[in-house]
UniProtKB/TrEMBL annotation:
<keyword id="KW-1133">Transmembrane helix</keyword>
<feature type="domain" description="VTT">
    <location>
        <begin position="30"/>
        <end position="157"/>
    </location>
</feature>
<dbReference type="GO" id="GO:0005886">
    <property type="term" value="C:plasma membrane"/>
</dbReference>
<keyword id="KW-0472">Membrane</keyword>
<comment type="similarity">
    <text>Belongs to the DedA family.</text>
</comment>
<feature type="transmembrane region" description="Helical">
    <location>
        <begin position="12"/>
        <end position="31"/>
    </location>
</feature>
<dbReference type="InterPro" id="IPR051311">
    <property type="entry name" value="DedA_domain"/>
</dbReference>
<feature type="transmembrane region" description="Helical">
    <location>
        <begin position="51"/>
        <end position="73"/>
    </location>
</feature>
<dbReference type="InterPro" id="IPR032816">
    <property type="entry name" value="VTT_dom"/>
</dbReference>
<feature type="transmembrane region" description="Helical">
    <location>
        <begin position="172"/>
        <end position="193"/>
    </location>
</feature>
<protein>
    <submittedName>
        <fullName>DedA family protein</fullName>
    </submittedName>
</protein>
<dbReference type="Pfam" id="PF09335">
    <property type="entry name" value="VTT_dom"/>
</dbReference>
<feature type="transmembrane region" description="Helical">
    <location>
        <begin position="137"/>
        <end position="160"/>
    </location>
</feature>
<keyword id="KW-0812">Transmembrane</keyword>
Length: 203
C-alpha cells in the first residue's frame, strides 16, 4: 500500500500528501506514520520534496482532517457515530475506549492521541461530541499535530531512503506507539542538554 501512496505523491506532489493525511485523520485506512516517515526520506539527500513545504502541507492536511472530524462529531452526535462509525473504523469498542480516555484526561487525549494508533482517529470526533470550545480544541490539536508531523518527518529525513522499511518493521514488531515514545524522549533529552549547555556558557 505504501508504494501506491508514494506513487500518488510522485504524480500529484503536495496535493496528494495533503489529501492523504486529511483522509487518514478522518478515518480512511492510511498508514500515517509510515507515510510521514517516507515523505521525510524524500526530503533528504537532494530528494524531490522540500522539508519546509512538506511540514507545512502535512500540518495543513492533518489539521483539516481534525477539523472535519470535530465538526462531524459536533453535528451528528454520539448515537450517529455508534451506528455508522464502523464505516470509518469507529467501532463501538474503540469509541467506548476513547470516551473513557477523554473523560479521564480531557483535551490532553487530543494532543497525545496522535501517538496511539486506533485512538487519534476518535479523539477529534469525541471533542466535537463533547461540545469542546473550538478555540480550546484548536490549541490542543494544533500543538499535537505540529509535534507529530515534525517528529516523523524529521525521523524520515535523518534516516533517509531506508526510513519507510524501518518503520514497517517497527510497526510490525514493537508498535509505533512505543517507538514514538522513545523518539520523543530522545528529542526532549537532546533539547534539555542543549539548554543546560547554553546556560552554562553564559557569564
Amino acid at each position: 500500500m505504501l508504494d501506491e501512496l508514494l506513487l500518488l505523491i510522485q504524480d500529484y506532489g503536495y496535493i496528494a500528501l495533503y489529501c492523504l493525511l486529511a483522509l487518514g485523520i478522518v478515518g480512511i485506512p492510511v498508514p500515517d506514520e509510515i507515510l510521514m516517515t517516507a515523505v521525510g526520506s524524500l526530503t533528504s539527500g537532494g530528494g524531490p520534496l522540500s522539508f519546509g513545504k512538506s511540514l507545512a502541507v502535512s500540518y495543513a492536511g492533518t489539521m483539516t482532517g481534525m477539523l472535519i472530524s470535530y465538526c462531524l462529531g459536533r453535528t451528528v452526535g454520539k448515537p450517529f457515530l455508534y451506528k455508522y462509525g464502523k464505516w470509518v473504523k469507529l467501532t463501538p469498542e474503540r469509541l467506548e475506549k476513547t470516551e473513557e480516555w477523554f473523560h479521564r484526561y480531557g483535551l490532553w487525549t487530543v494532543m497525545f492521541g496522535y501517538y496511539v494508533p486506533g485512538v487519534r482517529h476518535f479523539t477529534c470526533y469525541w471533542a466535537g461530541v463533547s461540545n469542546v470550545s473550538l478555540w480550546r480544541y484548536l490549541v490542543y490539536s494544533g500543538s499535537g499535530a505540529l509535534i507529530w508531523c515534525l517528529s516523523f518527518l524529521s525521523l524520515g529525513h535523518f534516516i533517509g531512503v531506508n526510513a519507510p522499511r524501518i518503520m514497517e518493521l517497527v510497526h510490525h514488531y514493537i508498535g509505533v506507539t512505543v517507538f514514538t515514545i522513545v523518539i520523543l524522549t530522545v528529542i526532549v533529552i537532546y533539547f534539555y542538554i542543549r539548554h543546560r549547555r547554553k546556560q552554562a556558557d553564559l557569564p
